[in-house]
Every structure is written in structure tokens, then in C-alpha cells.
Amino acid sequence: MADPRVPALPRRHLLAVADLSRDDVERILGTARSLAGSLDREMKKLPTLRGRTVVNLFYEASTRTLASFELAAKRLSADTMSIRSSGSSVDKGESLKDTALTIAAYEPDVIVVRHPSIGAPHLVARFTQAHVVNAGDGKHQHPTQALLDLYAMQEALGRLEGLHVAIVGDVLHSRVARSLVQALSLVGARSTLVGPPTLIPPGIDALGCEVSTDIDAIADADVVYALRMQRERMEPGESFVPSLREYTALYGISPERVRPGQLVMHPGPMNRGIEIDPRVADSDAALVVDQVRAGLVVRMAVLYDLLTVAPAPARVEAAALA
Amino acid sequence: MMLVCRNGQGDSLELEGRVVAPAQGIDEGLRIAVEAGVIVRIEPGSADGPFVAPAFVDPHVHLRTPGREDEETLATGTAAAAAGGYCALLAIPNTEPVVDSAAVLGSLVDRARHEAVVPTGFMAAITKGQRGDELTEMAELAAEGAAAFTDDGRPVESAGILRRALRYGSLTGLPLALHCEEPALSRGGHVHEGAVSAELGLGAYPSLAESVMVERDLGLAALEERRVHVMHVSAKESVEALEAALARETAVTAEVTPHHLVLTDEAVRSLDPNLKMNPPLRAADDRESLRDALRRGTISCIATDHAPHARQEKDVPFEEAPFGVTGLETAFAALYTHLVLPGVVPLETVLERLSSGPARAFGLEEPRIEVGARANLAVLDLDAEWRVTEDGFRSRSVNSWLLGETLRGRVTRTIADGREVFAA
Question: For chain B, which terminus, N or C, has the lower number of CB atoms within 10 Å?
Fold first, then answer.
């Protein structure tokens, strides 16, 4: 099954960007590009993962991540099913471990996990034989988002090496920011985190990024990446910022703050008028829709990579021999 | 105060080997004869035999009884202590119900007389239900045999209430053992605040959440001229506060756990729930400061903070897991492997801080190797290599921070209060 032209991937999971080497990232982005080409040219569906099963286990609301993983699996001819926490046995109090064991009994090849708690995909990886993809665990990691962001940047700007990306907003609560900073540094790009001091976690500069509390720091960036601002951060007892109004005044990405030639990205869902001005969101500088499109091919590439490049689980080999 | 365990006769036995009792200045080949639980004869012997030391005293053990006997019972917890070389332990009162009345304490003492393998003392709560607002009946609890007072598991949040507890508690002569944590700074925190928490996105629990409370509590202890014991010190700023207080001659003792002496927050990157505890693992310079304080004696006690948790409670994502790890059965080997063998802390210091140090801090009889003393001895095989596995524990819980690790040094026999309570 494995393609002999591609070097073996030593990882069986994609739990964090730290699981990837630069080679891994470039190979996955390369696969995504050729998948995009073949989808455009030929047909919407490839037979590559016929007979494989991909289970999406989602404990948090999601539109684009879940939809794109489902569609990615289908476009590669894998069987896929999605289990959401509401309407499943999770509603009856089933633990994540038991849900994982239940799903594992169907012998899926890949389990894609989204969960509000840090470490949930790691738990699923511990108790199943499947390849596990982290589709977002709390404030920790969202590695496929980082990969699709790299893909969208590369498509738009033709390169990644040497790019400067300013990531603006609620870094403290953002798995997107954490994943993206690591992914950018892996491919030789630079990042600057910009936001109010209360939403920048102490110690984050250890990731190898610059940190600023001044929105002017976005001026020399090639890409301005706005993070979603969550309303609950203003609630009494939390009070990370005094008001959304003041946040927008200080850090909102407005047309005045975007320099000609700069690109603007956002992981969605957007709060128009809060972290991003609608005029910016709808402008040609915005890559938001390109990011969504990139999500599909990059997630196809990730599934392809795990299932055809990585060593397959032993029981799959045994089944193939039988 | 009293320590209780199952009634029974003292054993008669002989031990010969290299005997090391740092508090007494002993390090030589000796033959020790014990009759009916009492050391009756000590004479020169071969140093080639096993390694014999005064048995250990753990001032910080969660026995989970009453209420969570599925996690630990007096029988299993003290059996684990016996296997760890302990001859005495102090149990923490954050049970269900909390040990905050003479009735609960009395029933525990009665149970210990039937179930405890190793002499056990029970601490009582400082405040009713450990809620931090009303003092317990400290005089009655002391009369019923309380070993000390603590609200461990949570801090005494109000400085005013702690001051009252220090003043009123003077009636008992018992120390207050303090869990120092400023909840306004630790709330939502899972791991030490620093590069690791920032990278993992986990809620941060800064060193200052501990040290600011250590400073407050030591200030109150000095004001009221009362003896206090600072539990599970984790931060270098807390060590500095302890040193400043000792320089002012405040009567304070302090403890540190094996896991804080061995690990740093880098270990948490694995997101293994068995590396989640309160206070959290801190940075390398904190660990260095703790090791230094242990060597100098600023911290005179090693305490395991043995905190058993049911499997289903730890088999969850890191962020959802409760704080706490077990430690009774691995303490000596962990310290020997990670501190003594690499030359970080001398063996004599580790043995003293595991035995005489905690005994003195809580006014317990120090385990001594002398004629006429009750035999409290730990026999150690320093060359033994063993792997920490789930099925190797006597504790009812397996949430060890050392699972899967291979350790050097092993307790092979424990004599507690004159009785052989463990033999490998």
C-alpha cells in the first residue's frame, strides 16, 4: 500500500504541530497541491482510501472543520461517520475513554477528535489502535488549521520561507495561534503575536515568536491573522478586557490599519465588527474563503499521509493477508 | 497526640549489615538484635550484609478513608507505607466527611486499631468542612488524639480565620500544617506558569500563588508566635520566604515531595494525567532551589503527598483530571535513583529527611537505632533494579508518576514499632 517514493513517516498520529518535521509539512502541502490539481482536472473523487474508515468524534461545535474532514474522507473514497457529543451516549454520561473504546471496536483507521479539554486526543490515542488526528483540543492545538493556513499563504504569496505573520487578538485562549506560531517557525517564517497584555500568556515567547501589545506592530507583516474574540472573556470574574468596544478600538483590524499589499486571514467563525472590520473581511486582501477551500485539500492530504505513508497498524496488515 | 495501628506482639529478629543512622552519626557494620519489638543488643558486625536505616516517617498521606475506600483504605494505604519503608505516617483530613469532629476522628482511630499495619496519626481540619470560615473544636480534637491541624487540599483563604486558628490552636500545642495557595492567583490553573503552560495552553498556576501565601502565613505565625509547618513547597520564592522567616527565628518547618525534587514542568508536555498535582511541577530553577533547601535543612522533611485516585478519574484528558499522585511505595527508590546516585543529594541527607526530620517537625518519637528503643527499621537493597508497574502496588490506586520507569534501590523489609510489617 505504501508509496515507495515517499519516505516513511515515523508518526502514527497528528496530535500537535510538534509531531511534524519540516519535511513532513512540505510533503503534506505538496500532496495537498497535487490533490487540488487532480480535483480540478478530473473528478471530485479519488479511489485512494477505498475500504478505509475515518471516524470524526466531535465534542465541540464545528462547521468547517467537521464538514471538511467528512468531505475529505469521502473525496478519497473512505467510509466515514461523524459522532457528535449531543445525541450520542455522551449525553448519557459515557466517558471519553469508553466512547473511544466503543468506536475502536469498529476498527477505524483514523479517528479525528475535537474536544474542549486539553489532552483528549492523546487519551484516544492511548486507548485505540487508530491513527488519531487532533481537530482541536481546548486551548492547546489545532494542527490541521495551521497546515491549511500555511497552504493558503503559500498559494497566495508563492512562498513561506521568510514570511512575517502578525497574529492579532486573544492568544491566551487560542489553539489556532499556538499551532500556527509553531508551524510558521518550522517552515522558516516569522511571527509576531499582538494583543492586550491580559490575553498574551506569560512565557509564550519561548515558542520563538515576537510579542507586542501595540497594533502598530502589524505594519511590516506580510499577513495579518486575526483571532476570534470570545464574548465570555469579558464576563465578570474573567474580565480579560474591559469591553469589546475598547478591544476593537485598540486591536480591531480596520481598513486604516491594513497596509496595501498585506493579506488578512481569520480562522472563522468571524465576529464582524469586533476583531475584524467587515470592509476588511470582504476585501480582496482577505483570504478567509481560500482558507476554507484549503481546509478540504489539506485534510485530504493529512488523511492520505497518515494512511499511505505512515506504517499501518498491525491488524490492518493481518486483515490484508487474510 | 497518638499513632495507632493493629494490636499485636513485637517480633524478635536479628539484622546484620551496614547500618546508617545519620541523626545518630552511625555508619558501620552492626548486628542488631530485636526481642519482642525492642532493640536489645547492638554489636559490631559485617558491613557486607543489607543496608539498614531508621524507618521513614511520612507526614503527608491521603488515606481517603472515610468516604473513598475505593481509592484507598487504612489497610491498603498502610500496607503501601510498609512496602515503602515507613514506620509512621500522618493522614490528611480532607475525606468525606472531613475529619473535623471528635466523632469522625474517634471512629477513624478505632478503625486504625483494626486495620492499620503501620502506626498512623490523623490530622484534623482547621476549619469545619475545610470551608475556611469556622474553627473546628480544636481542644476536643486534640484530646481525641489529633496529630496536627490542616485544611490541606485547600488553603485557609482568610487571613483573619488563620490568625484565629493560630491563636486558639495554642490551647492544643499541636502544629498547624499549611497548604499555601492564593486561590485568586491559582484559579483555573493546571500547571506551572511559564513556557510550558503558554505553549500547551493549559491554565497557569504561578509560583507566586504559593509564595505570597507562604509569606502571609509565616507573617501570621511570627505575629502569634506559633509553630507552623509548610506543606509541599514547590517554588523557589517560597524557599526564599522560608529562609527569611528562619532568619527571624520563626518556628517553621517545611516539606517537599519526591516528585517536586525529581521532575520539572517539562514532563507535563506528555499530557499524562499522572503528572498533574497541586502544587504543580515547576521550573528547573525551582527544583534546584528545593534540592538546595533540602541539603541545607531549610526544608527538613520529605513527604510523599500520596494522593490515590480511582482509575476512571485519571483516565480522562489531562485538563479534566484531578490533582494528585501516589508515592508511598516509590519514594525511597525515586530519591535514590534521581538524587543520590547522580550525586545531587547525599544518601545520609535523604535518609534523615525521610525519618528524623518529619518526626521532629510533628513532635513524633524519632526512629532511633539504640538499645532499649522500639525497632523502627528499613532494610534497603541499594543494587536492586525494578520496574514500576500497575500490578506491583499494595496501594489500591495506581496513579503513580513513575509508571513504566526503572528505578534503583528497593525497600526489602520494614520493621515498624517492633513488628515486621513488610518483607519482599
Answer: C
Contact A206 B198 (CB under 8 A): yes
B271–A95 CB contact, under 8 Å: no
Q: Decide if domain A143-291 falls under CATH 3.40.50.720.
A: no
> Which is catalytic among the residues B152, B305, B315, B383?
B305
CB within 8 A of B223, min separation 6: which ones? B163
Report the distance separating Cα A201 and Cα B199, nearest Å: 9
Q: What pLDDT is stored for residue A232 in this prediction?
A: 66
What does pLDDT average to over chain A? 89
- Tens digit of pLDDT for each residue in B132-169? 999 999 999 999 999 999 999 999 999 999 999 999 99
What's residue A233's pLDDT? 66
Cβ distance B417 to B400 under 8 Å?
no
- Residue B342: give the domain boundaries: 51-363+380-406
**CB within 8 A of A319, min separation 6: which ones?**
none
Supply the mean pLDDT for chain B: 97
Residues β-bridged to residue B381: B410
Q: Return the sign of the alpha-carbon dihedral for residues B397, B384, B404, B291.
A: positive
Query: For residue range A93-146, what is the model confidence (pLDDT) as tens digits?
Result: 899 999 999 999 999 999 999 999 999 999 999 999 999 999 999 999 999 999
CB distance from A8 to chain B under 8 Å?
A: no
Q: How far, in whole angstroms, is CA A62 from its chain's centroid? A: 12
Identical fold, A17-142+294-314 and A143-291 = yes
Taking contacts as CB-CB distances below 8 angstroms, the residues of chain A near B199 are 178, 203-204, 206-207
Q: Note whether residue B40 is domain-resident.
A: no
- For A240-266, b where at least 16 C-beta lie within 10 A, e where not — what string? bbeebeebbeebbbeeebbeeebbbbb
Cross-chain Cβ contact B319/A118 below 8 Å: yes
CATH of the domain at B162: 3.20.20.140
For residue B185, give the C-alpha cell: 492567583
Write down the ipTM of this complex: 0.88
pLDDT confidence of residue A321: 37
CA closest to B268 among chain A residues: A119
Is the pLDDT confidence value at A1 over 50? no
Q: Which of residues 203-262 of A touch B (CB under 8 A)?
A: 203-204, 206-207
Q: What is the pLDDT of residue B101?
A: 98
Give the domain A17-142+294-314 fold.
Rossmann fold (3.40.50)
> How many separate domains does chain B show?
1
Distance CA A36, CA A47 (A): 15
C-alpha A61, offset from chain centre: 15
Per the domain annotation, does B22 fall within a domain?
no
Nearest CB to A117 within list B195, B200, B317: B317
Would residue B342 count as lying in a domain?
Answer: yes
Nearest CA distance, A221 vs chain B (angstrom): 23
pLDDT value for B130: 98
Residue A318 pLDDT more than 70?
no
Query: Looking at the domain assignment, is residue B159 inside a domain?
Result: yes
B201 to A140: CB separation less than 8 angstroms, yes or no: yes
Residue count (chain B):
424
Q: What confidence category does residue A313 fall into, taking pLDDT thresholds of 50, 70 and 90?
A: very low
> Which parts of chain A are beta strand (E)?
53-58, 79-84, 110-115, 131-137, 164-168, 190-194, 210-212, 223-226, 263-265
Minimal-distance CA residue of chain B relative to A121 = B317
Q: Would you call A309 helix, strand, or coil by DSSP? A: coil
Predicted confidence (pLDDT) per residue in A199-241, tens digit: 999 999 999 999 999 999 999 999 999 999 977 666 777 789 9
Is A114 within 8 Å of chain B by CB?
Answer: no
